[in-house]
């Protein structure tokens, strides 16, 4: 296995990722362009930059991750953008990563799932 090959987690558009640097990839004519950003956290100011080349954007994101000690680089893909294997490996967020585990088989309605999630968030903020 190539130890230098990077692996990235795909996140939803407009998701909050305060412990990560985000790379957003979108179409630009016949090719792609990317933006790199992170949110303000503690004494780190948020920032954003655009890149005409996706590989350069990922290199910049990795540098920002190391400099500011973020946990990871995550990816947002514009609808219709297919992942290019040359950018690295792309994985989805595991649903078992939730604080109470995978609840997809619990038979909850969307309203019940929202209420449960809101309660967990309120507990975290307490």
Task: Describe the protein in words.
The chain is an alpha/beta fold. The chain has two domains: 1-93, no CATH class; 94-126, no CATH class. Helices cover 25% and strands 29% of the residues. It has two helices and six strands. It has helices at residues 54-68, 110-125; strands at 7-10, 20-28, 31-38, 47-51, 72-77, 89-92. A six-stranded mixed β-sheet has the order 4-3-2-5-1-6, with helices on one face.
Mean pLDDT: 86
Strand order of the largest sheet: 4-3-2-5-1-6
* Helix/strand order, N-terminal first: EEEEHEEH
> Which descriptor suits the 3D outline?
globular
Unreliable spans are none
Q: Helical percent range? A: 10-25%
Beta-strand portion reads 25-35%
Task: Summarize the main sheet.
Answer: 6 strands, mixed
Distance between the termini: 44 Å
Count helical runs. 2
Secondary-structure map:
Layout: E1 7-10, E2 20-28, E3 31-38, E4 47-51, H1 54-68, E5 72-77, E6 89-92, H2 110-125
Parallel strand pairs: 1-5, 1-6, 2-5
Antiparallel strand pairs: 2-3, 3-4
At a glance:
With 126 residues, the protein is α/β, with parallel strands linked by helices.
Short key terms for the protein model shown above:
single chain; 126 residues; alpha/beta; six-stranded mixed beta sheet; 2 helices; 6 strands; 25% helix
């Amino acid at each position: 296995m190539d130890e230098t090959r990077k692996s990235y987690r795909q996140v939803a558009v407009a998701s909050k990722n305060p412990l990560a640097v985000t790379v957003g990839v979108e179409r630009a004519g016949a090719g792609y362009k990317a933006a790199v950003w992170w949110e303000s956290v503690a004494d780190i100011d948020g920032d954003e930059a655009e890149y005409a080349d996706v590989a350069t954007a990922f290199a910049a994101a990795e540098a920002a991750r190391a400099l500011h000690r973020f946990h990871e680089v995550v990816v947002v893909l514009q609808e219709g953008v297919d992942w290019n294997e040359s950018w690295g490996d792309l994985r989805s967020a595991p649903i078992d990563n939730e604080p109470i585990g995978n609840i997809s088989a619990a038979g909850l309605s969307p309203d019940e799932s929202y209420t449960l999630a809101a309660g967990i968030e309120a507990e975290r903020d307490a």
